[in-house]
Every structure is written in structure tokens, then in C-alpha cells.
Design a protein that fits this description.
Structural class: alpha+beta
Organism: Streptomyces sannanensis
Keywords: DNA damage, DNA repair
Largest sheet: 6 strands, antiparallel
Mean pLDDT: 89
Distance between the termini: 55 Å
Strand order of the largest sheet: 1-4-8-7-6-5
Number of strands: 10
InterPro entries: Alkylbase_DNA_Glycosylase/TA, DNA_glycosylase
Protein name: 3-methyladenine DNA glycosylase
Oligomer: single chain
Order of helices and strands: EEEEHEEEEHHHHHEEHHHHHHHHH
């Protein structure tokens, strides 16, 4: 069941209860702030067929606490800015009485609203998942609102995933934040002073080498992004492909391997079976959670996840959400900052 989807008429203003923008990860903008011409909002509601946890569903789209494309408000609503095929757009989603209420601004507003059910997991099938381990069963029982989102946008997940290759998450988040704020555009609607839409493919291609360096991005990762944006249209087609075909399409680009393609397709395609292999920590976490063996490698991790074939990404997420992780016994990956060399 896909739930009930109710389009609503567009409006020229935002209700007082929704007049919020995001500052420092939280939001508040006084009522009466003037609205720009062309910033009229459109709204939709969608009733999911079962429990829905907005934080669990959309949380993977957030690249760090200061992600310029994503914020969470004190009322639990989520704001995100995206570059759609129709142009830039800002989306606000909140849950009210079992319904998802969405409001959107900008040229991409209709595109974002039309895909609201997909974004919130309408094409996901949680009922197809059968826990094979007690820990996974308990994690699932505590999180009935977990669904896998599907953005339908490949580059917006691919580029930050490339930035995360072989570096600490803090370094990758910093690079994403600096580049999007400098080269992206203010988001349409009332949050334009704080949310930014990521650059388009041409803008990514024109970023000078020294700006990549200042953001802490080495030449290998920047070259991978440049190769990807040159064939952006072909890569975006992967959003409509099955997992195997989409993976092949992405991995045709030198520098994009199984880790990056899985991290991308988990978000863009809602791929329930896209396992993140090649990760520094994930095999050890899964091995420790299921068997107590913290020295598990990729091959052993895939063997442990074999009973969840078709749903291995969901199983891995539930294991991570269980909180059962091995105690740290070695220093974190050393942090580098090539921008200061």
C-alpha cells in the first residue's frame, strides 16, 4: 500500500505556525518577515500506510550537523533544499496526526511534492523483511517507523559520498559545507539566508583547483567529482534503474567503487539491498553485534547478512541502530587538512 496522497492548492504565504527558518540546526523566524515575489509556496499531504518516523527516514540525507542543504526544526519538521530537474526547490515536511504535511517553494516545488511519498518510503516494503537474529528483531520492534527514503536524485548523494572517501566524516562534512555555501545558491522560500541548494553540474566543473584544496579535498576525490558531473545526465538516469543496473552505471566512472555506489543508491533509489562494502568500521560493527567477533571483514560480513538477501541494507541499518558496537581499541583515523598545507 502506498498510502493516500492529497494535493492542495498553492498559497501566496505561509501560515504563522509554519513561518520558521533554520538557524544553528533549529529554526525560528519572526512572523511578518516579507516574502519575495515568486516565493509562493505549494503544499501537499500524504497519509502513509503505517508508522513513519521522520527522523529515521530522512536522517541519512543529512551530511553533518551544519549541512547547508538540511535542517531539523524544534517541532520535528525537516527542511531540505535540492536541485531537481525542474530547478531548485525547498521542501518542508512535518508529521501531524499520522499525516505527512509538506510545503515547497521554488521552480522545483512541484517536482519535490509529486515525489513526497517516494521520499518518505512509499516504494519501500518493510513487510518483506524477516529478522533472522534476536538483536535485529528487537531493533525492528523498537523502530516500526523505519522506512527507506528515495530521493530520485543521484548527484546530490553521489558528490558528498565521494567527499567521504578515505577521510573522517568531519573532514567530509566540512568540505561539503564550504563548497555548497560558496558555490550553491540560496534556497527558494523563507529559509534562503540559511539553506543552500547545491551547485549544478556546470558549476561543480568550474570550481578552481585551489578551492578544492582550501576545502580539504584532494585531487583524487575532486577528479572523481569532475568526471561524474561531466556525465551528470547519464548518472541521473540511474535513479530509475534496478540496483544492479544502477550500480554498473555509477561504477563506470573511475573513482566510484562499491562503497560509493552503495552509499549513493541507498539514498537516491531507496535500495534495500545496497550493502556498503569497503567501509572501515561497518564489518566490525556487524560482526560484533551478531557474533561477538570485532575482526570481521567484508567477506564475513556479507556471509552474516546472506539470510537478508534483498534487504541487506535494511538489516545493516537496524544493526547500527541497535547500538551494539565494539568498544574502541585504536585511535580514530588521523585527521588531515590539506587546505592548510
Amino acid at each position: 500500500m502506498a498510502g493516500r496522497f492529497a494535493p492542495q492548492s498553492s498559497s501566496g504565504g505561509t501560515p504563522a505556525s509554519l513561518r520558521t527558518t533554520l538557524r544553528g540546526g533549529y529554526t525560528h523566524v519572526p512572523a511578518g518577515v516579507p516574502r519575495q515575489a515568486g516565493n509562493a509556496s505549494r503544499s501537499r499531504t500524504w497519509t502513509p500506510p503505517g508508522p513513519l518516523d521522520l527522523g529515521l527516514v530522512l536522517g541519512p540525507l543529512r551530511r553533518g550537523p551544519a549541512d547547508p542543504t538540511f535542517r531539523t526544526a524544534p517541532d520535528g519538521s525537516v527542511w531540505r533544499a535540492g536541485l531537481t530537474p525542474a530547478g531548485p526547490g525547498t521542501l518542508r515536511v512535518a508529521l501531524r496526526d499520522g499525516r505527512a504535511e509538506a510545503e515547497a517553494w521554488g521552480p522545483g516545488a512541484e517536482w519535490l511534492l509529486d515525489r513526497l511519498p517516494e521520499l518518505l518510503g512509499a516504494q519501500d516494503d518493510p513487510d518483506a523483511f524477516a529478522p533472522c537474529h534476536r538483536l535485529v528483531h528487537e531493533s525492528l520492534r523498537r523502530r516500526p517507523g523505519l522506512r527507506l527514503c528515495r530521493t530520485g536524485l543521484v548527484l546530490e548523494s553521489l558528490i558528498p559520498s565521494v567527499l567521504e572517501q578515505k577521510v573522517t566524516t568531519d573532514e567530509a562534512y566540512r568540505a561539503w559545507r564550504l563548497l555548497v555555501r560558496k558555490y550553491g545558491d540560496p534556497a527558494p522560500g523563507p529559509a534562503g539566508d540559511l539553506l543552500h541548494v547545491m551547485p549544478d553540474a556546470r558549476t561543480w566543473a568550474l570550481i578552481p583547483s585551489w578551492e578544492w584544496h582550501r576545502a580539504g579535498v584532494d585531487s583524487k576525490r575532486s577528479a572523481t567529482i569532475l568526471r561524474a558531473v561531466r556525465v551528470a545526465r547519464r548518472l541521473e538516469e540511474a535513479a530509475g534503474m534496478d540496483l544492479a543496473e544502477a550500480t554498473r552505471r555509477l561504477e563506470l566512472i573511475p573513482g566510484i567503487g562499491p562503497w560509493t555506489s552503495a552509499e549513493t543508491l541507498q539514498r537516491s533509489n531507496g535500495a534495500a539491498d545496497a550493502v556498503t562494502v569497503g567501509d572501515l568500521h561497518l564489518p566490525g560493527i556487524i560482526g560484533y553485534a551478531l557474533t561477538g567477533d570485532r575482526d570481521t571483514d567484508d567477506a564475513a560480513m556479507l556471509e552474516l547478512l546472506a539470510p537478508y538477501e534483498g534487504q541487506r541494507h535494511r538489516a545493516a541499518r537496524l544493526i547500527l541502530l541497535s547500538g551494539r558496537t565494539p568498544p574502541r581499541r585504536a585511535p580514530k583515523m588521523p585527521r588531515g587538512d590539506i587546505g592548510r598545507l
